[in-house]
Design goal:
With 444 residues, this protein is of the alpha+beta class. Among the domains are: 75-161, Nuclear Transport Factor 2, Chain: A (Roll); 165-263, Nuclear Transport Factor 2, Chain: A; 283-396, Distorted Sandwich (Glucose Permease (Domain IIA)). Helices cover 19% and strands 35% of the residues. The strands form five sheets. Strands 13, 16, 17, 18, 19, 20, 21, 22, 23 and 24 form a ten-stranded antiparallel sheet that branches. It has a five-stranded antiparallel sheet with strand order 3-4-5-6-7, with helices on one face. The longest helix is centred in the first third of the chain and has 23 residues, at 24-46. The protein starts with 7 loop residues before the first strand and ends with a helix.
């Protein structure tokens, strides 16, 4: 039987294979040709034509920032006002004309009278390089300052509060020499010791009663400006232990009158009818006596007062509210002030060098108000104050007389006072709380 050829050959693997050439090369060409075309097109686009400049893409530059002219430098001129000085003398040094000074005072007067500037206060003038001024500042007191802004020749004025940060601070001190030295040793200023003498001045004579080992504690306000100490606010609570006797005082401000005073824990006033001394700190050079050798006349006679030796010009304060009944020369007593108080008291202040402003017959004065200055007028061997008290017209010993307390806390505010007092008392007892806490921790 003849085998029929179907056009296939048997390969090495025993399979039939076609006698035709394989088609794989054709397929590969179909796949590769498009890629070759794409690459050729890219080469044509990239290679520049003869005579043609290559195309360069430029990235646009970032816009330049606008030129800002620097603000004109403001210069601050500071000046401490000297005694007797005025704006008419100060401002012309900075280019002010007399007419400009007058216009400034007139426009500002509804807010503050610049004719009343005080010696010792600071005035600040802010000027520009062109010679003009932008604002003027004047320290009215420790807590307020006046700001005057120059707005094209028109002046806008306002009174601002000094932006103090007020912190409540605690101080404990033991007296080795005197209260001022104890306060200074604790890193604080004389002010606290002077205020302490004001608070307890009716019970404690800070010239004769103070002993080494006496202690005191104070809770008070301390002011800070830009992180730096800038003075003191109010004493809120105080405790003084003198010769084993402890006295506490708590500040309370009446909600209706805003008047403040110090009271003990049960609401009695810490103040008495009169203060024990007319000077905050001085040395007693001569005491009340029924028979004393007069230093000038050299005869024995009563000395009806207490002499306080102090530097010439030291301030003398009224020991209670009252009315001036005499202010002038009184023979051997020299310059003298006499004040009539309630409850039949009179106080006298002898050998003064001068009187404070406004002290004249008929003037009303407050306790602790400065009324005159230590001198040596009349029959005197040196600067000192002779202080006298009369009760129902009879001289009494200022150091030994027992004064009655001033008016107690008003009853309608007693509960409010007690709530505030408990908070202050807790702060006043801070060392005790800290000690108790430390002991409790050490037990565990």
């Amino acid at each position: 039987m003849e085998r029929m050829d179907l056009g296939h050959k048997i390969g090495r693997n025993g399979r039939f294979s076609s006698g035709r050439k394989p088609r794989r090369r054709k397929r590969a060409l179909f796949i590769i040709l498009p890629f070759i075309a794409v690459i050729a097109a890219l080469i044509i686009l990239i290679i520049p034509r003869p005579g043609a400049e290559p195309e360069v893409r430029r990235i646009p530059a970032a816009p330049k920032p606008p030129v800002i002219s620097p603000a004109p430098t403001v210069r601050t001129h500071k000046e401490i006002i000297s005694r007797g000085s005025s704006l008419a003398e100060i401002l012309p040094k900075y280019g002010f004309l007399p007419k400009e000074v007058h216009e400034l005072k007139e426009q500002v007067k509804p807010v503050y009278d610049l004719g009343r500037i005080r010696a010792g206060r600071e005035i600040r003038l802010l000027t520009t390089p062109g010679g003009g001024w932008t604002s003027l500042e004047y320290d009215i007191d420790e807590n307020r300052f006046l700001v005057v802004r120059n707005e094209s020749g028109r002046f806008r004025a306002e009174i601002k509060e000094v932006p103090f940060e007020v912190r409540t601070v605690f101080l404990w001190a033991r007296i080795e020499d005197n209260p001022i030295a104890a306060v200074n040793k604790a890193g604080e200023e004389d002010f606290l010791a002077l205020e302490l003498s004001d608070i307890f001045g009716s019970d404690i004579d800070f010239y004769t009663d103070i002993r080494e080992g006496d202690t005191f504690r104070i809770v008070y306000e301390k002011k800070f400006l830009n992180g730096r100490s800038a003075g003191y606010g109010n004493i809120l609570a105080a405790e003084f232990t003198n010769q084993g006797k402890t006295t506490q005082a708590f500040r309370f401000t009446y909600p209706d009158t805003r008047k403040s005073d110090f009271f003990d824990p049960v609401g009695n006033s810490v103040r008495k009818e009169l203060l024990k001394s007319p000077m905050k700190f001085a040395r007693i050079s001569s005491r009340f006596s029924s028979s004393r050798l007069h230093p000038i006349r050299k005869i024995y006679r009563p000395h009806n007062g207490v002499d306080y030796a102090a530097p010439l010009g030291s301030p003398v304060q009224a020991t209670g509210d009252g009315t001036v009944t005499q202010a002038g020369w009184n023979g051997a007593s020299g310059r003298m002030i006499k004040i009539r108080h309630k409850n039949a008291y009179e106080t006298m202040y002898l050998h003064l060098s001068g009187f404070a402003a406004g002290i004249r017959v008929g003037a009303k004065v407050d306790a602790k108000q400065v009324i005159g200055y230590v001198g040596s007028s009349g029959e005197s061997t040196g600067p000192h104050l002779d202080y006298r008290i009369a009760y129902h017209g009879k001289y009494v010993n200022p150091n030994g007389w027992k004064f009655q307390p001033a008016e107690p806390l008003r009853k309608e505010f007693l509960e409010t006072f007690k709530m505030e007092m408990e908070k202050l008392k807790f702060a006043l007892d801070a060392p005790k709380h800290c000690l108790a806490a430390c002991l409790a921790v050490s037990l565990f």
